[in-house]
Amino acid sequence: MLRRLLALPEIADVDVDGLDRLAVHAAVLERKPMLAAVFRECHELMLSLDRRTFGDTTGLRVELGAGVAPIKMTFPEVLATDVVPSPGLDAVLDAQSMDLSDGSVRALYGQNCFHHFPDPAMFLTEAERVVAPGGGVVLIEPYYGPVASILFKRLFSSEDFDKQMAGWRTQATGPMHGANQALSYIVFNRDRSRFESEFPNLQIVETFPLGNYLRYLLSGGLNFRQLAPSFSEPALRALESALRPLRRVLALHHVIVLRRRA
After folding, report:
1. Pick from 97, 86, 95, 254: which is nearest to 181 by CA?
2. Is pLDDT above 80 for 63?
């Protein structure tokens, strides 16, 4: 009931797997400066993690699942790709079967796209192939803390949040429909020993919860009504800073950084 009340009316009849979703989301983002600021902050964080982790590794910087807020909006040198064609993309690319040469990539980035991969093992196999030694992968994904676990379970009718899912393969029926938002928790936390055994060339070097949860939540994201005025962003940012010790309880997203071993 609450989800229906908060949902943006223009989203109601949109097919989440259709091309019109991107146009609607682009229009929503255009009128939500607080949400746009959160995306820019994530872009800057991902590039910062790349620079401090992947050293002088050469190669392409490629974003997967770029959607309507691609990293190239902030850093034009990052290639924007998605499995769904849309204006502004540099290439249509399937993350589970990438049309990229071996060792040609310095960094792969993904903002809320990993949990949409039907078979994450296929993506990780491809990452081992295309990423140059010393390079890596930077992901931002739904977190698994108490608040995130409650919220994401109820947020979208088209996606689940199931920490107990058997195995890694999801029941995805389209680019968006059928995803499990707990997939990053399952692969990199619950089943970490399996990940390390099957993908020894990919090392988890960093993982932490993000602190921008208040601004993201109150902005309404791309699908829900904004619950706080845009001018409140500085105050919300200050509150997030004050609540930093509680991030592991309150956070909605987390970062995972993988590095390709030499």
Report:
1. 254
2. yes
